[in-house]
């Protein structure tokens, strides 16, 4: 009997960004652009390293450690072993997400009295 596993939803919300970074591998440093960022990982365009390799992402004086999860010729996806919670890269993520709009609540006391949207009596 074969057991089928259902795909798990992503733990973090991905946000499209455009952040120029430097990726430091074991043997080389590559300039790239983060195009998709979350607290748990990123997609970096313009840089590629072998899958399962470890690297450092340099941005704004901060170093973020990452593990390459998938790679193509000109881009790669990395996972952060330590969740982003502070620093310049986290601040850029928060700026890209923008202010969260609070849901508007309409209470009975603030509604116009009468019938319909025009308040006809």
Task: Name its key features.
single chain; 121 residues; mainly beta; Thrombin, subunit H; 6-stranded antiparallel beta barrel; 1 helix; 8% helix; 37% strand
- Give the CATH topology of the domain at 15-97: Thrombin, subunit H
**Shape estimate:** extended
State the separation between the terminal residues, measured CA to CA: 69 Å
Mean pLDDT across residues:
84
Please report the total strand number as a whole number. Answer: 6
H/E series? EEEEEEH
Q: Give, in spatial order, the strands making up the sheet with the most strands.
A: 1-2-3-6-5-4
| CATH homology-level superfamily of the domain at 15-97 | predicted glycosyltransferase like domains
Quickly give the CATH architecture of the domain at 15-97: Beta Barrel
Task: Specify the number of helices.
Answer: 1
Sheet having the most strands: 6 strands, antiparallel, barrel
Helix content: under 10%
List the uncertain runs. Answer: none
Report strand %. 35-45%
| Highest-level CATH class of the domain at 15-97 | Mainly Beta
The secondary-structure class comes to mainly beta
Describe the structure.
This protein has 121 residues and is mainly beta. Helix content is 8%, strand content 37%. The protein is built from one helix and six strands. A six-stranded antiparallel barrel has the order 1-2-3-6-5-4. Residues 10-86 form the PilZ domain. InterPro entries: PilZ_domain.
């Amino acid at each position: 009997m074969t057991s089928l596993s259902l795909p798990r939803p992503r733990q973090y919300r991905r946000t499209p960004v455009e952040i120029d970074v430097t990726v430091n591998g074991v043997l080389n440093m590559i300039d790239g652009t983060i195009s998709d960022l979350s607290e748990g990982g990123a997609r970096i365009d313009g840089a590629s390293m072998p899958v399962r390799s470890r690297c450092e992402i340099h941005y704004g004086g901060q170093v973020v450690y990452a593990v390459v999860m998938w790679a193509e010729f000109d881009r790669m996806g990395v996972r952060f072993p330590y969740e982003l919670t502070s620093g310049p890269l986290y601040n850029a993520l928060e700026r890209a997400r923008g202010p969260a709009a609070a849901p508007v609540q309409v209470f009975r006391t603030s509604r116009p009295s009468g019938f319909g949207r025009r308040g006809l009596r």
